[in-house]
Amino acid sequence: MDREEQLRTLARLQDALEQTKAVHQSAKEAFDRATELHNDLGAMHPDGSLQQAVRVCAYTQRAFAKALMEYNRYILDNLPGYGSHGTK
């Protein structure tokens, strides 16, 4: 893999990382709002927004973690000066 292709791949992975981070941040904000609503309505209220917010937040956290692992793994495995190629 030539240097130009490595940089394109790295840019693609970095873009995916930034996008998943932004989506997860939005999901965390929605979770905070749902928690406030849940507290205002009371624990026995049948509103499902908190459960949905928990699911979405967990999903986006997994997506962000996966993107971060892929980005880090690419750097460690493919770029000179990192990982098995040495430390930087």
Would you spell out the secondary-structure blueprint of this structure?
Elements: H1 3-41, H2 49-78
Description:
The protein is mostly helical and 88 residues long. It has one domain (11-79). The protein has two helices and no strands. It has helices at residues 3-41, 49-78. α1 packs antiparallel against α2. The longest helix is centred in the N-terminal third of the chain and has 39 residues, at 3-41.
Summarize it.
The chain is built from two helices and no strands. It is mainly alpha-helical and 88 residues long. It has one domain.
What low-confidence regions span 5 or more consecutive residues with pLDDT below 50?
Answer: none
Identify the overall geometry. Answer: rod-shaped
Number of continuous helical runs: 2
The biggest beta sheet is recorded as:
none
Report mean pLDDT, rounded to a whole number: 88
Please trace the helix and strand order, writing H or E for each element.
HH
Summed up, the domain count is 1
Kindly estimate the percentage of residues that lie in beta strands according to DSSP: under 5%
Question: How far is it from the N-terminal to the C-terminal residue, by CA?
Answer: 21 Å
- DSSP strand count: 0
Structural class: mainly alpha
Radius of gyration: 19 Å
The percentage helix is over 70%
